[in-house]
Amino acid sequence: MAKLLYAIIAESTIVDSQSNLLSIIKIYENITVPRLPATIPAVFIITGWIKEGDITRPEHLNFRVRIVNPSGSEVERNFSMEGDIPANKRWLRTIIRAEAIPLVEAGLTKILIEKRNGTRWAEIGEIPFEVTQAPLQ
Fold this sequence. Notes:
By secondary structure, the protein is mainly beta. It has strands spanning 2-15, 22-27, 30-33, 38-51, 59-68, 79-85, 91-103, 107-117, 120-133.
């Protein structure tokens, strides 16, 4: 069973073509906008997974990302990813390019990571980030 190790939201990523090493650039913890509502033009949602148990078998992974405002309302933009962790491979990294994410209110916004378990979705992680409106000049 694959276990989520990390989930990060950032402005940019670079994957070295020779070593496959990942550089994550400008991790978001706080986002200040001139006024609300606002839109983040594009961000990357990076996840890292490890296959636990028998690695000699492939494993199917199906997860989704939901964005929830501080009031609890859900942003209409959701993202999902599905694929296989090959046999004899333990690690999997995903990079989702999320475009035009609306920010409608100030406060702690959460990106929820949910994994499909049969017919149900189970929340397995979250990426919180603070949204603030810049003071009027």
